[in-house]
Amino acid sequence: MIHAITSGWITFESAIEVHTVRAGQLIIRDAGNSWRLASSANTASHVITIPRTLFRKPFSLDLLKRAHVADMASPEVRLIFDYLRMLETAEWLDSPGAADLAETALLAFVVGLMEKDPVYHWLDAEGTILAARGVIEQHLQDEDLSPALIAHRLGISVRTLHRSFSCGDQSVMSLIRQLRIEKARADLLSRRSEAAVSQVAAKWHFSDASHFIRIFKARYGVTPGVYVHDHVDAGS
Fold first, then answer.
1. Do 118 and 156 fall into the same domain?
2. Are 62 and 85 within one domain?
3. Whole-number Å distance between alpha carbons of 214 and 218
């Protein structure tokens, strides 16, 4: 459980540790352990429950042997809460696959806050990439889709976004192009017309038809016209 204290204070005491968490701080603890709680009058907090079952590989329950306290003003904590706010309005969570990715990303953020080992810095980056992909898929047809928009939706800086993607095998813009070219391919096959190339290129915000054709050929090995001709004939 995560307790984010907004006013007053709460003391959390287990058999092995004691923490007094004050306004502006949070604590991450295993609710399965035995805890005694004491608080001041008029204490208020936000409580977030994370199912223990999410701590599957590569995450470890060993992280929960002790509680972790952090300042809510830290960039890492702000990222977690901004991400949660983004999830509240994310329509793409209707997809089971997207929901699973969102859970993994959230847990990666939390683990990154709890553990300073370099492997979890990588996981934190992986979580950012997964979250960014969700935003990209949601706004793929928007003309103003950009690293700045994605970073804003995630509540992080553009620099942090690019740094996270540097841990993977492609940049933010290359992922956007990849997803758009995949959507464009599906559109071409549904229209079954070579004349649709310029329309599809414009729909998915490629600068012009020739630019679209170059990117399409680099990915699929042939021009859009040849690809449509071959696949329509094969399916007929």
1. yes
2. no
3. 6
- Rounded Cα distance between 44 and 10, Å, is 9
Q: What is the pTM of this model?
A: 0.50
Single-letter amino acid code for the residue at 77? V
String of DSSP letters for 9-35:
EEEEE-SS-EEEEETTEEEE--TTS--
pLDDT at 120: 43
* One domain, residues 106 and 158: yes
Domain span at 223: 190-235
Question: pLDDT digit string (tens) for 115-153?
Answer: 654 444 444 677 788 888 888 988 999 989 999 998 888
What is the spatial distance between Cα 145 and Cα 91, in angstroms, rounded to a whole number? Answer: 17
Task: Please state which of the ranges 121-130, 153-162, 183-192 shows the lowest mean pLDDT.
Answer: 121-130
Q: Which two tokens stand for residue 51?
A: 């199912």
Residue 13 makes CB contacts below 8 A (sequence gap 6+) with: 19, 35, 36, 37, 38
Confirm whether 90 is domain-assigned: yes
Question: What confidence tens digit (pLDDT) does each residue in 27-49 have?
Answer: 999 988 899 999 999 999 999 88
Whether 95 and 132 map to the same domain: the answer is yes
Question: Residue 225: what pLDDT?
Answer: 85
Of 135, 169, 203, the residue that ends a domain is: 169
